[in-house]
Design brief:
mainly beta; 4-stranded mixed β-sheet; Cyclophilin; elongated
Length: 197
């Protein structure tokens, strides 16, 4: 077993592999090639495995990080007019333009996709934006396409849902098409400011 890596069963048909050396998305293809693994999903430094009854956890010793030269880059055209933009600027002692410039200045790695299908968890958020915790009162309704920040990450709401992140903009980029999602763990996101309609 790799140094520091821990494996834990999650019921009868799933395992979680924790503390992988490096980012978990690099191990997805290797894990899915193991006999008895139905599907693998990355979440920052952990890997979820959905397995068949025949799966032998000893096989996890054969996990290898993929050597991927160029991660996929997704450009996110963003209208920075979110309802929380002014409050975020005030809380951080910045102008709204400063918040936008900081947010758009970085490339973000997708560490996981979840709480709803297609929601990318992107990090690292630059300082001082990374200092904002989640909102104390979540909204009952966040519109689809909302670009948001909280707890050192940025993300995009693919569909309307409740949410507790700070809404700083919006995009019309579709994040889900049928049963496929735009983002995968390991992708790079770049937010590009555009003017609203």
């Amino acid at each position: 077993m790799m140094d520091g890596m821990r494996m834990e069963p999650l019921g009868e048909d799933a395992w979680i592999v924790r503390d992988l050396p490096g980012e978990a998305w690099r191990y997805v293809a290797s894990a899915e090639a193991l006999p008895g693994v139905i599907e693998a999903a990355a979440c920052f430094d952990s890997l979820g495995l959905w397995i068949e009854e025949s799966f032998n956890p000893v096989l996890l010793d054969h996990l290898k990080a993929a050597e991927i030269d160029e991660p996929r880059t997704i450009v996110v055209p963003t209208i920075y007019d979110g309802p929380d933009l002014g409050e975020v600027a005030r809380l951080l002692g910045l102008s709204e333009e400063g918040v936008v410039a900081l947010h758009a200045s970085e490339s973000y790695r997708c560490g996981a996709v979840g709480f709803q299908p297609g929601f990318p968890y992107l990090r690292p958020l630059p300082a001082p934006l990374d200092a904002l915790p989640r909102r104390t009162s979540p909204r009952p309704r966040v519109p689809a396409g909302s670009v948001a920040i909280a707890a050192g990450m940025t993300g995009i709401y693919p569909g309307e849902s409740p949410g507790g992140w700070w809404l700083i903009g919006r995009t019309e980029l579709p994040l889900v098409s049928g049963d496929r999602t735009l983002f995968r763990a390991g992708d790079i996101a770049r937010f590009v400011p555009i003017t609203g309609r």
